[in-house]
Amino acid sequence: MFDLIIIGAGTAGISAYKEAVKYTNNLLIINDGPWDTTCARVGCMPSKVLISTANRM
């Protein structure tokens, strides 16, 4: 049995995990796929870097 089960390891899930480990280490995270958000890994953030670099040229 776990004190807390977090479903999803995107932005909200990781934030919930960071807060929860302050109180317990008896956690379960259920996630299908890579951790972190698509935005940070391959979506918004990398494209913003490319667009910013292109705009400076």
UniProtKB/TrEMBL annotation:
- Gene3D superfamilies recorded for this chain? FAD/NAD(P)-binding domain
**What residues does the FAD/NAD(P)-binding domain cover?**
2-55
- Pfam families, from UniProt? Pyr_redox_2
**One MF annotation (Gene Ontology) recorded for this entry:** NAD(P)H dehydrogenase (quinone) activity
Q: What is this protein called?
A: Dihydrolipoyl dehydrogenase
Q: Which organism is it from?
A: Acinetobacter baumannii
Taxonomy-wise, where does this protein's organism fall, top ranks first? Bacteria, Pseudomonadati, Pseudomonadota, Gammaproteobacteria, Moraxellales
